[in-house]
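User: Please predict the structure of the protein below. I'd like the answer in structure-token form so I can feed it into my own downstream comparison script.

Assistant: Understood. Taking the following sequence of 183 residues as input:
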Amino acid sequence: MILLEMVVLALVISLMAGGSLRKLEQERLRGEWLLLVLLPLQIAWPQFVEMMGMGCAISLTIWLLMMTLLVVVLALNAPHRWALGVAALGITLNVIVIGFNGAMPVSLRATSEIGVSRADALIKLDADCLHGVFDEGVRIPALADVIAIPGPRWQCSVVSVGDLLLALGLSSWVFTATHKHIG
């Protein structure tokens, strides 16, 4: 949720500061249609997998391929849009940690910090193909979901450095794209 919240907040702040949706509409990106499909799909993937009854191995493989393609498209646009490079770095970090661990390790300590019991967290993680329990065998632990984001029940979550970079990159791009000079 932090990704969606930050992008919406950036858009609202931008519009309040004189930005324009028209400028955003006129922004042209390489592989734009892929971005419009893959970015929302990244967020909705767990629900899509559950709805389709897809196995975890195939789900993980497809997700890793989709996210690698998303990184390539973002990177193609990064030379003239620095914020999309930040977003690409965030996704890359998530792909690396998920690839090395077979799922995104989630810290049970961090889930407890946002008010989720250990039992509830384990039940949720057991049903999720893209997330798993952070344990002593985790590779690259600094890139795992270890950052507790407090707040109201609907907003709090546990995120990774990659998630934060992705959200920062996309929200920064939205803000700058709505202020770009139309010439």
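That's the full token string. The chain has one domain: 2-177.
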